[in-house]
Amino acid sequence: PVCAVNHTNAYFNYYKKFAPSFDIYGVNSYRTYGFGGLWAKVKRNFDRPVLLTEFGCDSYFEGKGERQDLQKKVLSICWDDIIYNRAGNSGEGNSIGGIFFEWLDEWWKDTHSGDSPLHHQEKGQFHMDTFDGWSHEEWFGLLSQGDGSKSPFLRQLKEAYIYFKENKNF
Description:
This protein is 24% helix and 19% strand. It has helices at residues 12-18, 38-45, 68-84, 159-166; strands at 3-6, 24-28, 50-55, 60-61, 65-66, 95-100, 126-127, 134-135, 143-144, 156-157. Strand 4 (60-61) and strand 5 (65-66) form a beta hairpin. Helix 3 runs parallel beside helix 4. The protein is globular, with a radius of gyration of 17 Å. The mean pLDDT is 89.
């Protein structure tokens, strides 16, 4: 299968004209309460199965510290939306799944701020549709590296990982 991947829904007309043989519409989407009208918009404009090629939420919340419970809540809402919109369910019927971003916290991502990759950055990098309104790029993992003293080798399961491991719809 051939898949187009974007972070926007602005290119449907280009796909229809220049790449009508795409099999799958892929999209990277980061939302707090599911993906809204994405499913219907793709169905109406490009009518292909939809794969969330990236979706996620960080576990650090500005002013509150690490909040794995909120990360788990966001990811479970998004996953429920993916399931709701797959074939045979009540939604649009064009969801074919999603890929979590990210498996492991990435401590090295925000070195542009002058911080060391050995320090887990706690300052938000840019605004995003999350509970606190910020993206903390280094905190998206479903697994953490603890306090970093045993990094890069330590892997600790976060609440979201455990939830999805035990969830029967996964």
